[in-house]
Amino acid sequence: MKKVEHFICEVCNTEYKNEEMALKCEKSHKHPQSVMTAKCRPVTACDNGYPDAVTVLFDDGKCVRYKR
Ligand SMILES: [Zn+2]
Known about the structure:
- This protein is of the alpha+beta class.
- The chain has two domains: 29 residues; 38 residues, no CATH class.
- Helix content is 15%, strand content 34%.
- The chain has one helix and five strands; from the N terminus they run ββαβββ.
- The strands form two sheets. A three-stranded antiparallel beta sheet has the order 3-4-5, with no helix packed on it. It has a two-stranded antiparallel ribbon with strand order 1-2.
- A hairpin with a 6-residue loop joins strand 1 and strand 2.
- The model has no long low-confidence stretch (mean pLDDT 96).
- The chain binds zinc ion.
- Zinc ion binds next to helix 1.
């Protein structure tokens, strides 16, 4: 019988056969720190109140804009 060992990234839960790749995956993830800005529309144009776009500050200091 063979013992099978595998590793799972604790951020995205992807499974890897080797530890190096799992560590590389974990270290590659950027973590949101705060929402810098949100583009909103008035209630006459958006009845659910959620912004159309937000800009998120990540732990590496970069900002990324997300749009729905
Ligand atoms: Zn991952």
